[in-house]
Amino acid sequence: MKLFSSITFLFSILALGITAPVKHELDSTACTACTIVVEMLHDTLGEDVFNNCIGQFVAKVCSALGIEDNFVCKGIVSDFEDTFVYVLDELIVEPRQLCGLLIKECDGGPASLNQTWLIDMPGTKPPYKAPVAPASGKPTLKVLHLSDLHVDNDYLIGSEAKCGEPLCCRPPKDGSEAFTKDVNLPAGKWGTVADCDAPYWLLTDMLAHIAKTHKDVDYIVVSGDLESHADWVYSKEGHIDKVQNISRTIKQYLPGIQAYFAVGNHEGLPIDNFAPHFTPSKFHMDWLYETMATEYADWVPADQMDSVRYNGCFMKKLFPGLRLISLNNALGGDAVNFYLYVNQTDPDGTMTWFLKQLADAEAAGDKVQIVAHIPGNDNEMLEGWAINYYHAVNRFEDTIVAQLFGHTHSEKYYVTYENPDDAKSRPTGVIYSAPSVTPMSNYNPTYRIYTIDGQYEGSSYVHRHFLSLLSPIFDEMITNSTHMGSTKIIIDDFSFGTVQTAMNISYGHVMYNLTELVIIDVFKFVVKYDIKAITEELEDALFFNISAKNFHAVTSFAWKNDRKRLQQKLISLFKKYPQQFTSIPGFNKLGPIVTAELVQAS
Questions:
Q1: Which strand (E) or helix (H) includes residue 259?
Q2: Ranges assigned E (strand) in 350-488
Q3: Which of 132, 267, 406, 569 would be 147's cystine partner, CB 3.0–4.6 Å?
Q4: Which residues form the Saposin B-type domain (predicted)?
């Protein structure tokens, strides 16, 4: 009873700290309260009892801070408790350092959280050679890229899609809610663009569609994350079943086509956590890797199975001159892989193995495609891993021809540069982050097919499709014989910033704080080079940014460039506020035709 009272009292102190109304006050007060509670618990209960109470303590912090609902906090803490206690025991010298882990504003966290490490790049980088564009008419290959499937076996049609939990479109956790609560947004049959994952039949329907409409697919890459986002109920049995089910489903719907998987952060147990072999054996992921080795045996060479069973990585020679490397970078660099905070340096030799594969390919004169999950320079990677990966891409830029990743759920690309601190230096590589199968994060389910230089002597095996699809003018510039000396497209009539912004928007990046002048300049580039895919998006951006200050510039642009859709939006706006706009300085300078159309419409 005394023990219970002590814990309740101390948690009450913590609750006072974490309910402070002002953020900076919350930060300092919560940190102070956390330190008091942890040190008193440790002193009162002793180290063994304290370790046993860590899970309850973290669950209380999670719930009291409103990070998640109580049932989610308890589930997550239950999954993480053994991992957390092990890592803390390795890291924490003084109990108060626990607060440095739980609350980012607290000082005094373990020094090992900020480890950096560098690994020597093998061999000598060959002299740079400008890449040569593939000749027109040469054979091509088609590559299907699936990512972030997140299949939810508990998806329930008609259930609440706006449930306020981390994952919706599932049976309510309290059965009575099905009868007492109205459904705001019912879960649809084929998935729901909300905080919902993919029902199994969405995946099978997508695969059936691919089989019917893309009969020329040569091979498949799957860049990880097979499990749903319900990470508080993850289990070995569930992960094993998901790997078996999805690999066999792909074989069923796309028979005879080789598929190459990478490990995603949601394959971890707990989520994001892949224990390197310096940890006790009870934490090891051998059961997952063994399942993958068994299920992927038809696709992965026998001489790579030891590697799969050890760290989930493998290399496959796809065609003469082309290799594929599947890299488990969640093991190597995931910033939420707690085991890495014990020792971040080259976990299980994964980076060393990766560099050897690249060096072997370079020595053989082969090109390499990389499939992995978290983009290599993404801010969710630990700095040490990210820096070494970046160095590897620069060192082997002539060898690496594709980097196929996922994780973001939206289609993005990332460019690596010869000088990482200078985006105007020479580009050395591109990471393609594929959109997701799951609608989670408010995206429609989709897949990507890349057309690459095909199988013939001297093939570059480079992706050759996106710019040609984006613009017929780009396609002409690439395929025209006068441009065959380089894969570059020379744009000398617009600034670097304008072209870069247009490319970012084309690839789905959300661009914030763009002024109307910048948008207009990008629009001029888009119009000149016939990039139709983003014209409506730019028109909407101009319209949503309209103000008395820029009305003249936007309206002039719309009429001068005959943007009918934008003109109609401006006319509709003018109808609502004719007096306000006619009183804007410069309104009469729009010209008689524009002025007449606006006035007549109102």
A1: strand 258-261
A2: 367-371, 400-405, 412-417, 427-433, 448-453
A3: 406
A4: 27-110
Quote the pTM value.
Answer: 0.73
Contact 270, 80 (CB under 8 A): yes
How far apart, in Å, do the first and last CA atoms of the chain sit?
A: 78
402, β-bridge pairs? 369
What are phi and psi for residue 334, nearest 5 degrees? -60, 125
The DSSP bridge pattern shows strands 258-261 and 140-146 to be unpaired
Structure-token pair, residue 214: 């893309």
**Share in percent of the chain as helix, strand, coil (round to 5):** 50, 10, 40
The domain segmentation of the chain, as residue ranges, is: 2-114, 143-155+197-481, 496-601
How many CB atoms lie under 10 A from the CB of residue 536?
12
Q: Which residues pair with 259 in a beta bridge?
A: 220
Q: How far is CA 342 from CA 2, 83, 574, in A?
A: 35, 11, 63
Check: CB of residue 347 under 8 Å from CB of residue 403.
Answer: no
Strands 427-433 and 400-405: parallel
The residue type of 600 is: Q
Burial of 298 (0-12, 13-18, 19+ CB in 10 A): exposed
Over residues 255-307, the pLDDT tens digits come to 999 999 999 999 999 999 999 999 999 999 999 999 999 999 999 999 999 99
